[in-house]
Amino acid sequence: MSTLEVNEVFVGRPSVLGTKRDVPVYSAIAKSRVEAPFLKLDEINLAGDDQADRTVHGGVDKAVYVYPATHYAAWSEQGFPVVAGDFGENASVTGVDEYDVRVDDVWAWGEALVQVSQPRTPCFKLAMKTGRKDVIPAMIDSGRSGWYLRVLRTGEVPTTGRMTLEERDPVNPTIAEVYVASFTNVAPLDDDRRDAYWALLDRVLAAPALSRQYRDGLESAKRRREERNAG
User: Fold this and answer.
1) Which of 43, 123, 188, 207 is the most buried (most CB within 10 A)?
2) CA angle in degrees (0–180, nearest 5) for 154-167-49
3) Can you tell me whether residue 186 is helix, strand or coil?
4) φ, ψ for residue 16, nearest 5 deg
5) Rounded to the nearest 5°, which phi and psi values hold at 49?
């Protein structure tokens, strides 16, 4: 079975990130490194972590946000001087990335069992945190999204050390494939590539553990495309 290494864990509470149209914007994207060797993980959050608006962040399908540490250098090379924790991640990891991890994967993390549910879709709060509006298209174009975990079994988790892969169905899409299905512009594709895209989208939608919110967005986009094609 595969393993990944948790290098650092971060948590944070909502605070004012900035203003939008003179209205305060609250977010917990600014997180601090956890110094304790272990931390409690419940169904919604790591101890000390929270979200400002669970309609779009957090919740059972997005209890933990994981980000590959190898991406930080790539961001810096693109002119984004970021370090671990700057993307609001809960766990900075090495050993795997979006091309290795699949939706539905179940990982053992200390006493807890966690399951991969979806990639991260960047929003305006990431732009506010980094001070760069172009971070949103840069994340989409690069696919350096990281991924979310839901909690199947609660317990104490180590803030450094291994997660071990416990269950995997190789039919399920990787996080990178989910991103391709989410953000590909179908219009300019030739017939063969368009057929391959639709096949990929169907495989993504067939993944049992894909989060409901993410699935709803893809199904809505698929319906709109089918209606345009039919018209």
Assistant:
1) 207
2) 30
3) coil
4) -75, 120
5) -110, 155
Instruction: Decide: 100 and 2 in contact? Cβ < 8 Å.
Output: yes
The structure tokens 């071990």 sit at 164
Q: Are strands 155-158 and 91-94 parallel, antiparallel or unpaired?
A: unpaired
- Cα 53 to chain centroid distance, Å, stands at 16
Per-residue pLDDT of the chain (231 residues; tens, 9 = 90+): 578 999 999 999 999 999 999 999 999 999 999 999 999 999 999 999 999 888 778 899 999 999 999 999 999 999 999 999 999 999 999 999 999 999 999 999 999 999 999 999 999 999 999 999 999 999 999 999 999 999 999 999 999 999 999 999 999 999 999 999 999 988 899 999 999 999 999 999 999 999 999 999 999 888 877 776 665
